[in-house]
Amino acid sequence: MTIYINNHSFHYEIEKLVRLFFPNEKLTVLENTAVREMPYIDTVLENAGGTESVFVSIRTDDFSESARREIDRRADDPEKNAERTMAAVLYELLVKMTGRPQPWGILTGVRPIKLFRRFAEKNGTQYAKDFFRNQFFVSEEKTDLCALTETYEKKILSLSRPDSFSLYVSIPFCPSRCSYCSFVSQSIAGAEKLIQPYFDLLCREIAYTADIVRQHQLRLESVYIGGGTPTTLNARQLFELIGTIKQHFDMSTCREFTVEAGRPDTIDEEKLTAILNGGVDRISINPQTLNDEVLKIIGRKHTAAQMMEAYRLARNLGFRHINTDLIAGLPGDSTQGFIDTLDRICEMNPESITVHTLSMKRSSNLTKQGTNIAVGKESQAAAMLRYCEKKLTECAYHPYYLYRQTRMEGNLENVGWSKEGYDGIYNVYVMDETHTVLGCGAGAVSKLKDPRDDSLKRIFNYKYPYEYINGFDEMLNRKQQVINFYDELSEYLSQVCV
Predict the structure, then answer these.
(1) Which end of the chain is more exposed for a tag (fewer CB within 10 A), N or C?
(2) Quick check: is 110 in a domain?
């Protein structure tokens, strides 16, 4: 399928929208060309006699239709309205062609809650809901989910200040690589000799970052140790890592400290005790599914029984906030199989449950092996998420954050559910881009938030552990950008943060 772009700059959004309907097809985008070769989608921004309109035409062997619509330039953002008009016309033709309305309509971005909040804060919640349904073609179900999630998110956002930040620490090692994973992590078998030198340098970077924070009197809100799988570290390393953070950062304002324990096959009593005694108040134990056959298919080297045993061990040791991650749409899973998993997880009664939808990342083994995204009237993952919403609501969970990814089964979403008082605040801050996140470790990205205009500046660490080790001094030099950023902000922060 070829997408022709004529007289407009909306190629990025148009291509993403078409990919929702044809996720497994090769798409070619050509700009300002006169020749048309079938099958194709033609998109044109027209201006005739001072009247602007969009023209969209789709031509295939089985479908041939066009539509034209005038642009309302009286809108608050005329350029955005022109892009939205073109997307709307294209969407309506694609639905007519395929018979597959998208649950999120023409929205293709990662953060629909952030967009919803912008409309709600300006014109009220009902306006935001109407706009999502009528202008973005978002389904009633997803619009309501947006509105509910936003009510919980904004309570957390109100806790942040202009001088606030969160800390992310990366442990980029895993016992094995899951078939759906695209994260920059290395299996222990191939990288065991790197762990201790990586660990030593990571502790140095944490101390260096803390010095910057202290010099600029920033306020720590949350800490998240993720990966990879942090519990690939041994108990001594885990205790020392947590201790390094607590030694160098002022923890008096920290509202949440999370360690993503992750893979049950890396969890034992010694490691959990080290984490608990270090003062961590939230851990995540992630089965993804409790179907042993599906676990084998996706490359997880543990069983459902191991997950449940790790959970019982953590609970008996005294952890009071345990999160579990599940994935809807895994290869080999069924709707009933997912229902059985969720029912068993709810019986365990974790404080929070994060339900992801399978995302077919291009660098994952699943994609490399030729697995396609399911295309049909409604994906199996949609039925799974529908049951999630019903079951988790009945069990007194509420949605507290939501985000989306590219190439998701059914063009759906990821949702964090929690019981009252157990929202994962780091997750909300990261997805909303509320305040600065300082990243330490391989693959970590520091995102510097300017509270004056909500802009973000990104500073990237080296991706792989061997790069991190070999280029450590150069990587520390990059943190001079953090110093410069907050030097320039210091006067503003001194005025607004009294």
Answers:
(1) C
(2) no
d(CA 112, CA 402): 8
Q: How high is the pLDDT of residue 400?
A: 98
| Residue 15 to residue 227: CA distance in whole angstroms | 31
The DSSP secondary-structure symbol of 62 reads S
Give the containing element (helix H, strand E) for 150.
helix 140-157
Q: Which two tokens stand for residue 99?
A: 């018979």
**What is the DSSP track for 72-123?**
-TTSSSHHHHHHHHHHHHHHHHHHHHHS---TTTT--SS-HHHHHHHHHHHH
DSSP three-state, residue 325 = strand
Same domain, 208 and 92: no
| 426/286 same-domain check | yes
Q: Is 234 helix (H, G, I), strand (E, B) or coil?
A: coil
CA–CA separation, 154 and 362 (whole Å) = 33
**381: helix, coil or strand?**
helix
DSSP 8-class letter at 359: B
| For residue 279, pLDDT beyond 90 | yes
In this predicted structure, the answer to whether residue 51 has a pLDDT above a threshold of 90 is: no
Give the model's pLDDT for residue 225: 98
Q: Six-digit token pair at 3?
A: 């997408």
Strand partners, 459: 446
Q: Is residue 231 part of a domain?
A: yes
Please, which residues have CB within 8 angstroms of residue 242's CB and are 6 or more apart in sequence? 225, 257, 259, 274, 275, 278, 279, 280
Q: Is 276 part of a structural domain of the chain?
A: yes
Residue type, 445: V
Write b or e for each residue in 193-214: b if 16 or more Cβ atoms lie within 10 A of its Cβ, otherwise e. ebbeebbebbbebbeebbebbe
The confidence score (pLDDT) of residue 149 equals 98
Kindly state the helix (H) or strand (E) to which residue 458 belongs, with its residue range: strand 455-460
Which CATH number is 161's domain given?
A: 3.80.30.20
Task: Yes or no: say if 279 and 245 are a contact pair by the CB < 8 Å rule.
Answer: no
Rounded Cα distance, 104 and 115, in Å: 13
**Domain extent at residue 8:** 1-99
Instruction: Say if residue 69's pLDDT is above 90.
Output: yes
Q: pTM value?
A: 0.94
Contacts 24+ apart (CB under 8 A), 341-347: 341/287, 341/289, 341/290, 341/291, 342/387, 342/388, 342/391, 342/392, 343/391, 344/290, 345/287, 345/290, 346/391, 346/392, 346/395
Taking alpha carbons only, the member of 342, 351, 423 closest to residue 385 is 342
Per residue in 384-415, is it b (16+ CB within 10 Å) or e — as a string? Answer: bbebbbebbeebebbbbbbbbbebbbbbbbbb
